[in-house]
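Interim report to the steering committee. The following record documents the input for Two component transcriptional regulator, LytTR family (229 residues).
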Amino acid sequence: MNIKCMIVEDEPLAVEVIQDYISQIPFLQLQAVCNDAICAMQTLKEKQIDLMFLDIHLPKLKGLDLLATLKNPPKVIITTAYHEFAVKSYEFSVLDYLMKPIEFSRFMAAVQKALPVTSNSETVKHPEEKDLFFSVNKKKARVPVKSILYIESQRENIRIVMEDREIITRYSITDLENELPDDFVRIHRSFIVSKSKIDFFDMQDVEIKGKLIPIGRNYKDFVKNILGN
């Protein structure tokens, strides 16, 4: 399954980042890059586009105004530095709303939503088998979801502890929580754990591989319902 995509973006650095991300995803085929909405409208008339990466603040005509003019738009992923347009954008049934600077793992999660959900699709059937990617020292680190023991928030960074290693990356624990499968549960404002990796627990802590992880006061009832009495 190949998805033909285009970038509508007037910032050269943002274009460069998105182009790089697209080049790393085999099923994406970049067809065009436009720096304004007028170019985008013409391209949509001339080419088959399945997915559009669309900035909101464009010259001449804004991104959401462009969407309002399209009768049969392709699938759309918003890429922007402005959070205040998120609610408005979903009126146009966009797939996702990515805030700059965009992490590759977040980009990949958004792109997965463009894949058709059929028995023959390339969509990951078992979420625990998928891989996530994070920026570490200017490289992309692959993190198999099934290897994660727990995640710890460290202010602007998160620490992802796996069975054989750990990484620290700049990422939001809340954003990551939304990308993880049901096996993962938030037990504290600073901790997410894999339920299947828990060795012992009570209503104060869970223990994973000898590590005691506290259960937050506001999470105790939730954890009790999830893990049992």
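The longest strand covers residues 28-34. The committee is asked to note this result when reviewing the revised timeline.
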